[in-house]
Amino acid sequence: MTASLTMVGRSVRLSRRNLDTLIMAIVLPVLMMALFVYVFGGAISSTQSYVDYVVPGILVLCTGYGATSTAMSVADDMKKGVVDRFRSMPISGFSVLTGHVLASVARNALATFAVVLVALLMGFRPTASLGSWVLAMGLLLLYVLALSWLAAGFGVIAGSVESASLLGFFMLFIPYLSSAFVPVATMPPWLRAVSEHQPITPVIETVRAFLNDQPVSSGWLALAWSGGLLVVAFLWSTWLFGRISRR
To answer: Domain ABC transmembrane type-2, which positions (predicted)?
Structure first.
């Protein structure tokens, strides 16, 4: 635990020093939200205010930006030989990855706060109770942890920082194939099948239902997808790290 906390502090300090990455992780989701609300929102018909509809999708999109940064940070450590130095110390590989993952969670929390704050200025009016807010943020936290551990695994196997950014590209692309920006019912049948059978759509739909005080129909599915992905990603990334670092 002490080693993990030390590595978390190290990763947070690195994030603070890498201001351009930190700023982009916050600014890009805000710009995306402004783009969809002000440019495309008027042309998209919805039974509710479009900003109320799109904010949950933007919050999930934030995790993709944060996860890509995590993959690049882990790959940078692997490339520069920092991991070789850590191997000479009495610490576990688990703590090294934990530092990167929890720093990713901190970056995502900051980005989420910024998105919600700007969304309120743009007319976002959630009707959720305090309990619904807690449940929505808890589900987002679970999903962020799952995606961050998956990104850490990508960072371990990437040959360079550039390769890690390419591996993380699909984390930014998949939300566009979900219900983040338009209802699934408006998609062609073949694309609707893709959208309905992936983890992001139930997560977005559940967060949207919590924030807008609507019936939650996919909560258990979202929990199963996020929890299952977290377990698989954690086991895969720690196994990879241990295997590669012993070479």
So the answer is: 20-244
| pLDDT tens, per residue, the chain with 247 residues | 777 677 777 777 777 677 676 677 778 888 888 888 888 776 665 556 888 888 888 888 888 777 778 888 888 877 777 766 776 666 666 777 888 888 888 888 888 888 889 999 988 888 888 999 999 999 999 999 999 899 888 888 887 777 777 776 777 778 888 888 888 888 888 888 888 888 889 999 999 999 988 888 888 999 999 999 999 999 998 888 877 766 6
What is the CB neighbour count within 10 angstroms for residue 246?
8
Helix boundaries (H) for the chain:
2-17, 19-34, 50-80, 82-87, 93-121, 130-157, 161-167, 169-173, 189-196, 200-211, 219-245
What's the rounded Cα separation, in Å, for the pair 183 and 164? 31
Q: How far is CA 217 from CA 58, 86, 207, in A?
A: 20, 46, 11
Q: What is the dihedral of CA 6, 90, 101, 233, to 10 degrees?
A: -160
CA distance 223 to 229: 10
Instruction: Report yes or no: 161 and 75 within 8 Å, Cβ to Cβ.
Output: yes
Tokens representing 191? 């694309």
DSSP assigned state of 81: T
Dihedral in degrees, nearest 10, Cα atoms 227, 229, 232, 238? -100
CA distance 93 to 152: 12
Structure-block tokens of residue 4: 């993990």
Residue 39: CA atoms inside 13 Å, Cβ hemisphere, count?
7
Among candidate residues 112, 133, 135, 104, the one with its CA nearest the CA of residue 55: 112
